[in-house]
Amino acid sequence: xxxxxxxxxxxxxxxxxxxxxxxxxxxxxxxxxxxxxxxxxxxxxxxxxxxxxxxxxxxxxxxxxxxxxxxxxxxxxxxxxxxxxxxxxxxxxxxxxxxxxxxxxxxxxxxxxxxxxxxxxxxxxxxxxxxxxxxxxxxxxxxxxxxxxxxxxxxxxxxxxxxxxxxxxxxxxxxxxxxxxxxxxxxxxxxxxxxxxxxxxxxxxxxxxxxxxx
Length: 214
What we know:
Layout: H1 3-7, H2 11-21, H3 25-34, H4 43-50, H5 56-74, H6 78-90, H7 103-112, H8 117-130, E1 136-149, E2 158-170, E3 178-183, H9 185-208
Antiparallel strand pairs: 1-2, 2-3
Helix pairs in contact: 2-5, 3-4, 3-7
């Protein structure tokens, strides 16, 4: 069973697919062009080029993403995916609008469902990169001042020591999905040097071994 068939029981998904296949040929062609390298598209581009506003824009992109993934994982051709959708509409239990797809719109839908080699390549590359260990998705750094008491009466006998606080957020469960720790100024400088060194090494590998890299 494909993901499209599996998700068809969800009325929101059915409506999303209905919105997608109801687009005219010009808007389908524009959507194909906008999603050639992936399914993240700005709201302004969707509104100006495809005529979609929120929440319809999000629904249509989600439907397209699911159909594309389902087609790829099931080994379906674009024609098989479209036939599956048409069959599901005929068996729909709710009152969805009747979608009439003419030959030109069908041709554009097949282009929309067609393989995206660059997107597939980037997806596979990211999957390989992220498979062995958690992937760092975000980080934040803050400077905290720690108060210490001196014997001297100057400034009320209080001085401050700066400490850097760091938080790392990962893509999978690591204690609380984040790691928090603190650094001294010297430690922060060492971390900066290590990151810069790794960046230089990565660029050198990419430059000298480009014929071997995926």
